[in-house]
Amino acid sequence: MLRRSNYWLVALLLIMMSRFVGMMLFPLADTTEPRYAETARLMAETGDWITPWFEPGVPFWGKPPLSFWAQAAAIKLFGLSEFSLRLPAWVVTFGIIGLVWRLATALFGAKAAQWSSLIFATMLLTYISAGAVMTDTFLALGTTLSLVSFYLVRLGHSDYWRWGFFVGIVIGLLAKGALTLVLVGMPIFLWLVITRQGFSCLGRLPWWRGIALTLLLVCPWYVLAELKTPGFLNYFIVGEHLLRFLNPGWGGDLYGSAHKQPLGMIWVYWLQASFPWGVFLLLGLLVNWLRDGSVRRKQKVLLSHDAWFLLLSALTPMLFFTFASNILWTYILPSLPFSALLIGHWVTQGDSSVLVRMRRLTVALTPVSLTVVVILVAMGSIPLKTEKELVNSYFLNHKEKDSPLVYLHTLPFSARFYSQGKAIKLTEQELIALSKKNEFQQIYVAVSKNESESILANIPFVFRTVMENKRYKLLVTEAYENDSE
Questions:
Q1: φ/ψ of residue 446, rounded to 5
Q2: CA distance 131 to 185
Q3: 3-state DSSP assignment of residue 134
C-alpha cells in the first residue's frame, strides 16, 4: 500500500510519463520545433559542435549551442527521431521540478513542496516545453538553479549551492545569452532593496572564483564562434539582445519574422502559460482573500522576505518584457517555477472548504485533460502544422530518377527536417526551367492548398494529386504540355 504522502509522487510521475509518451507520438510541428531540430540534426551529421547551422552554408547566430549540443548528443545516442530530440527537455524539466521541490521544502515544508512540484508540472507551458525541441527550457533551468541556489545560501544551506549559482549562470549564457543575467540579477537586486537586507548577504557567494569559473566555461565558445563565422557577436549581442527588444518590427532577423504584440501582452501570456493555476489563483483569491479575519494573516505571509523573493523572481520576466512588443509566450517559462512556489504555498495555507475542493479538482482534472489532448493529437483529431506525412508520402512514391521534393515559394521547417535537408524551394519560373532540363522522370511539387489553383494555372504541367495535408497538396507531373515542341 502506498503511503498517503506518496500519492503526490505517483501523480507527478504519471503526469511526466504522459508527456513522455506524447513526445514519441507527436510529429514536429512548425515552426519552432523543426527549426531547432534541423539545426541539431545538422550538428550531429556534420560533427561541427562549434557553429549551429540553420542550413548548409548558413550559420545560425540566433541562439547559443547548449540545447543543440544536448539534442545532437541524443541523436548520436538514440538515433534521429522526435523522441531523441525531445528527450533532453524532458530530463531538464525533471531538474527544474527538483529545484522547485528543494526550495519549497526549505521554505515551507513537505506539503507545500509536494503541491508546488505538482502545480509546476501541470502548468500548460511547463507540460508543453517538457517534451519540445526548444531553448527556453534550458534557460529556465539555468535561471532557476541560480535563484534557488542564491536563496538557499542565504538560508545557510551547504556550500555546493554557492557554486550552483554560477553553474546556473553558465547554463543560461550557453542556452540563451545575456538575458540570463537580467532574469537572475533583477529579482535579487529588487529583493535586496525592498527588504532592506543590504548587500552583505552577497558576500556568501564566491564571486571572484565564481566569475572566473563562469568565464572559463562560457567565453571559449563565444570566441570560437566569432572566429569561425565572423559577425556572430554583433548579430547576437546587438541584434538579438538590443534591437529585438527595442524594435517591435525589427527587420534584421535572419531566421524568422518579428512577433509584434501589444505592449503588456506578456501578462496575458502569463495567464496562458500558467493555466489552469493562474486562473485558479485569481478565482481562489476572489473566494478567500477577503474572508473575515484572514486579511491581516495573509498580508503577513505575503510581506515576508521569503515571499518577496519568490514574487520578484516570478514577476521579473513580465516586468522586463512589459514594454517589449517582439515577444513570445515561451518567454514566461522562467517565471513558472516561482509562480508555482507561491501558489503551492498559498493553497496549503487555505482554510476555505471551497478552496480545498478547487485545488483538488484542479490537480485531478489537469493531467487528465492534458492526456486527452495528447491522445487526440496522436490520433489526428487535432491536426498539426507538420509536413511529416507529406514528406513520407514523397519518399514512399518517388523513384530514383524522380526529382527532389519541391515546395513552391515557401519551405516549411518541418519539410526541411523530415526530408533531412533534401526538400528544396523553387518559384514557378524555376520549376518550369527545371522541367525543361529533362533531368527527371517525374517532378514532385508541394503547393499551398489556398493558392494551388492560381499557381497551377500559370504552370504548363498536367498534375496528379498524391496526397494533401492541412496546408499543402503533394502533386506529381503526369506530362509537360509542350513536350512536342
A1: -105, 125
A2: 28
A3: coil
How far apart are alpha carbons 436 and 252 in whole angstroms? 37
Q: Report yes or no: 87 and 21 within 8 Å, Cβ to Cβ.
A: no
* Long-range contact set of residues 223-231: C-beta below 8 Å, sequence gap at least 24: 224/50, 225/50, 225/51, 225/65, 228/50, 228/51, 229/51, 229/59, 229/61, 231/61
- SS3 of 412-454: the string is CHHHHHHCCCCCEEECHHHHHHHHHCCCCCCCEEEEECCCHHH
Q: Nine-digit cell at 261? A: 504584440
Task: Record the pTM.
Answer: 0.91
CA distance to 120, 124, 314, 390, per residue, from 336 (Å): 7, 10, 7, 37
pLDDT digits (tens, 9 = 90+) for 188-205: 999 999 988 767 788 889
DSSP-based three-state secondary structure for 465 = strand
Question: Looking at the chain, how many residues does it have?
Answer: 485
CB 117 within 8 Å of CB 16: no
> What's the pLDDT at 378?
64
* Helical spans, DSSP H, in 79-230: 82-108, 110-121, 124-129, 136-154, 160-175, 179-194, 207-228
Q: Is 71 exposed, middle or buried (0-12, 13-18, 19+ CB in 10 A)?
A: buried
User: What does each C-alpha distance from 206 to 99, 160, 214, 312, 404 come to in angstroms?
Assistant: 21, 11, 12, 24, 57
